[in-house]
């Protein structure tokens, strides 16, 4: 480990410790070091697992891959009570043999001005941050992913100060630890902004404190990709971080897919703003594929594409799926209801 990397780790740990003391968050993680692999490992690992009562889940850091030669072993377990009053024992997690860079990558978030090139006059779908959602009842394709690879992606435009604690882009959670969420976690662990993340296995997989700022009122693109136990986040086509998870968690849930809200935590997950081009893949898209297609309209028959909801269809109650497999409806039913997001005019992401 370079001295510079060690200094960064030390500084990050000091910051985390200070924040933990200030906020009263319970640090329940335990730490052990294991040195393995090539290179001059003199591991410093800081483990922190903080119970987040507002979300009902355990937020944990995972070791980032690439770069340095250190090996960190982190274990954490906690019990939390979620918003529904259920006490849930979050699974203990163990991450071993993973390398850590000691630096939290901050992705470029330069996409502040985008010019429309296609379908510029089609409306956008705006969510009210109260109860709006798109419901995709047909979720067999998601269940079929199970333990397999996936790529989630979406364009988002929202303002951080107007959001609930944990605004979600996409979720199929039936309850805590059943299904997934894909969206934003409230600031935590020293993060400056809400944290783009996924929850799998009831655990919020995040890294801190360096985070991209994707809720600044401009359009931004967020991707979560799983390839084996590697979970990688991309912001505006640039990798933010790869987390090495201790196991592969299933996506399967009996709940419909929701876009813009999460059934597992209704009170604090409604997204406020505009969502577009929400895509679900049963493959781990390559870095190049992600970057090259993020601002391209798909045909709908791309290999591995399970669902692609452009959310640009028109003024009706249907959120069309480009694959024709799983059209969504606005709100709860095809009738007008309080959960319907609204079609609005405005500049699309591309
Ligand atoms: Ca409706
Ligand atoms: Ca509403």
Please summarize what this structure is.
By secondary structure, this protein is mainly β. The protein has helices spanning 3-23, 140-145, 287-293; strands at residues 30-33, 49-52, 57-61, 70-81, 87-100, 124-128, 134-136, 150-157, 168-171, 180-185, 195-200, 203-206, 220-227, 230-235, 238-244, 257-259, 272-281, 305-309, 318-319, 328-330, 342-344.
Write up what this structure looks like.
By secondary structure, this protein is mainly beta. The chain folds into 2 domains: 3-100, no CATH class; 124-344, Jelly Rolls (Sandwich), CATH 2.60.120. 10% of the residues lie in helices and 35% in strands. It has helices spanning 3-23, 140-145, 287-293; strands spanning 30-33, 49-52, 57-61, 70-81, 87-100, 124-128, 134-136, 150-157, 168-171, 180-185, 195-200, 203-206, 220-227, 230-235, 238-244, 257-259, 272-281, 305-309, 318-319, 328-330, 342-344. The strands form 3 sheets. Strands 2-3-12-11-10-9-16-7-20-19 form a 10-stranded mixed beta sheet, with no helix packed on it. Strands 6, 8, 13, 14, 15, 17, 18 and 21 form an 8-stranded antiparallel beta sheet that branches. The longest helix has 21 residues, at 3-23. The protein is globular. It starts with a helix and ends in a 6-residue tail after the last strand. The model is unreliable at 1-56 and 62-112 (pLDDT under 50). Bound molecules: calcium ion (2 copies). One calcium ion (CA) binds at residues 317, 329-333, 335-337, 340.
């Amino acid at each position: 480990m370079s001295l510079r990397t060690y200094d960064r780790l030390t500084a990050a740990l000091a910051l985390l410790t200070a924040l933990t003391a200030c906020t009263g968050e319970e640090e329940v993680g335990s730490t052990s070091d294991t040195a393995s692999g090539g290179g001059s490992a003199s591991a410093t690992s800081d483990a922190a697992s903080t119970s987040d009562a507002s979300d009902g889940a355990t937020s944990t850091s995972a070791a980032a891959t690439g770069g340095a030669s250190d090996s960190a072993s982190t274990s954490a377990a906690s019990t939390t009570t979620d918003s529904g009053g259920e006490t849930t024992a979050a699974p203990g997690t163990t991450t071993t043999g993973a390398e850590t860079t000691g630096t939290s990558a901050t992705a470029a978030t330069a996409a502040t001005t985008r010019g429309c090139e296609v379908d510029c006059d089609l409306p956008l779908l705006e969510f009210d941050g109260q109860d709006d959602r798109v419901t995709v009842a047909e979720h067999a394709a998601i269940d079929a992913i199970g333990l397999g690879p996936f790529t989630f992606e979406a364009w988002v435009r929202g303002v951080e100060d107007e959001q609930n604690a944990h605004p979600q882009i996409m979720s199929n959670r039936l309850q805590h630890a059943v299904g997934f969420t894909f969206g934003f976690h409230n600031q935590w662990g020293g993060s400056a902004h809400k944290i783009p993340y996924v929850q799998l296995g009831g655990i919020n997989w995040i890294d801190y404190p360096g985070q991209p700022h994707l809720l600044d009122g401009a359009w931004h693109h967020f991707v979560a990709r799983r390839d084996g136990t590697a979970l990688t986040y991309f912001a505006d086509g640039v990798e933010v971080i790869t987390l090495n998870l201790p196991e592969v968690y299933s996506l399967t849930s009996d709940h419909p897919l929701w876009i813009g809200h999460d059934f597992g935590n209704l009170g604090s997950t409604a997204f406020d703003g505009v969502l577009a081009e929400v895509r679900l893949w049963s493959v781990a898209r390559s870095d190049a594929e992600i970057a090259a297609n993020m601002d391209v309209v798909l045909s709908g028959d791309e290999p591995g594409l399970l669902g692609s909801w452009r959310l640009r269809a028109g003024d009706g109650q249907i959120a069309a799926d480009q694959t024709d497999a799983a059209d969504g409806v606005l709100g709860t039913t095809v009738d007008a209801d309080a959960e319907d997001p609204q079609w609005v005019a405005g500049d699309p992401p591309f």
